[in-house]
């Protein structure tokens, strides 16, 4: 509006000046006002240009964020065109068609049990990217019943990996939640076929059965189950106390058995030692007896030789007399024995007088022979 006023003044300026009888100073004021209007017009144009450039840059940034997609390593992105599946973006930079292509936003709900926590937490994740790395799904504590109707609490882990992103998004509504519920149901069915003792001693069997039974459904959802692990099995308190008492009794029983076996081994070793000692003693006594017998036999042999030599000499000495050799030897031995009777340790008994003629009678009988 200011420009229109100035143009009007310029058009009618001469008439106004002539009518009022103006001077040249008024004309110079008009010229100054005209230059100021030109500078203001340039400033307005510059501001408008800045606004347009900023708007273009802002819109370009917004559209570039919508159109240009950078997919990181180990991730993929599902792209839909007009609400239908179009393609899967692998790691790298990609340009989408504006207004018709858009990434599929995935809403995943899962239960998480942080390390050291006692309660599980429900986590909700909204993302347009699918992580292709291996994931760990932590089950909450499950109340299951064994074959012998004992209620126990069991915790488990499942390691899964997405292998088919399209199936993971379109084949199941909530992948983590579905895999968790499937594993929990399968675990209850497996535990129901085992007794309490079998449950504690068959962890490897439970892990393998749980993996095999859930593998088919998991593959249909575009997931591969890598491994399943049972973390802990907790029986009720009364059964736990009974089991601890049973374990204590078993330990005491094993200790008593080991002690008895130790004593048995000790007695066997001692018996073997005594037997060896007896054998060695018998061998020693046998050797001593043999040596004594040999010595006695040798002494008897030598004595016999000496007696024979004595008899030979006696016979030679009394050969020319009427004395019998046998009678001589008997009388000689009799007198020797008779001389040994009176000792301090023995008692002497006097026999009738006829007994002293015993040697004479023997000698005569031998001589007569």
Automatic annotation (TrEMBL):
Listed transmembrane segments: 43-63
Domain of life: Eukaryota
Keyword terms of this UniProt record: Membrane, Transmembrane, Transmembrane helix
Domain Band: 66-247
UniProt keyword annotation of Transit peptide present: no
InterPro entries hit by this protein: Band7/mec-2_domain, Band_7, Band_7/SPFH_dom_sf
Pfam families recorded: Band_7
Gene Ontology annotations for the cellular component aspect, listed alphabetically: plasma membrane; side of membrane
Family: Belongs to the band 7/mec-2 family.
Protein name per UniProt: Band 7 domain-containing protein
Organism: Dictyostelium firmibasis
